[in-house]
Design brief:
The chain has about 400 residues and is of the alpha+beta class. It is built from eleven helices and eleven strands. The strands form two sheets. Strands 3, 4, 5, 6, 7, 8 and 9 form a seven-stranded mixed beta sheet that branches. The chain has a four-stranded antiparallel beta sheet with strand order 2-10-1-11. The longest helix is centred in the C-terminal third of the chain and has 38 residues.
Length: about 400
Amino acid sequence: MPLPPLVASLTRHKLTALLLVLQVSLTCAIVCNVAFMIVERVQLLRQPSGVAENELVSIDSTDLDDNAQPLVRQDTDLAALRAIAGVKSVAAVDALPFNRHDWTNGIALVPDGPTRATATAFNGTPDELATLGLHLVEGRGFLPNDYVPLGSAHDWSGIDQVPVTIVTRALAEKLFPGQDPLGKAIYPDEKPVRIVGVIDHLLRPQAHENADNDYATVFPMLPDANSVTYVLRTAPQDRARVLKQAAELLDRVHGNRILRHAQTFEQLRADFFHRNRTMIALLIAAAMGLLIVTALGIAGLASFWVQQRRRSIGIRRAVGATRRDILHYFQWENFLIVGTGVVVGAVLAYGLNMLLMQQYEQPRLPMLYPAIGAFALWLLGQLAVLGPALRAASVPPVVATRAT
């Protein structure tokens, strides 16, 4: 189809064509960025936590006694919980992926050196790795003499007494790229801590930047606060029963405590990502709304132009134009309008992405998204104009002889 006749026809409808180009360009810019945000959040929902999610249940326990001895209480509680039928292992921990109890500290490679990475410190009783189902890919787990002595300070005040640590693969690669991390020392505070093991994955309790989400250390420190999380590993089909019995048992062992968040790990993940799922639904609705409005605009304008051009269409039919020629004319006209809008929209998409990068730390928009957006809008435009174009193609030549 020659371009000059198409351009000449559009210049007689400059305002309407310009408005449609503007609508397409804005839709392209917004939908490309919205699609990128949706994909990012879906990937966030699906990222592996590193633990045996379908086998875990947890209960938060807060002891209300003023003179409570947390470590003694934990031993009693753990012994009782292990006796529940179906429990494979149990541990007391201070943090879990998605539970928001994020004890974060900077990691240096030399004393008082610059921070190379910021990682979450996970503490727990000796069965922590087995209970959580963490996959050790290098090195070893903790030995009994690795743990900070019971009479010593734990938590942050005891960080300098920790002799060894286990780190995630992502953190090891960040600290020692291309090197074997085993045996190397890191400095979470003033004294060195030697790496003895590497686990595959362990997500942090809070959401961080994508590259930082898997930066975690596991220390051989016992949770010595009055608040602790008990994690039990059992068969998937036994989780509901084990969780109910565990809550009842802990209440019988010591009643002067508060038990909260008795839930499976899958429920913990679902609660953590509740806002993300809501945002994904809203973003999808917004994108679909924009696309529908744009499609209606294209179809409405095409229908208006078909009605206005009925006599000229009839004249073209009378001088030999086929129905296919008329159909292709409207399709190419739509392609030209949508194509112009897409080119402008791609520029606007990157402009909007730069604004989001500055204001909300959004990653850079990959080129794939404007390319897919251009194809989607072109296809949408062709589908939207198809009905009016078919009506135009059905205009008979006799219309040319009728008075205007």
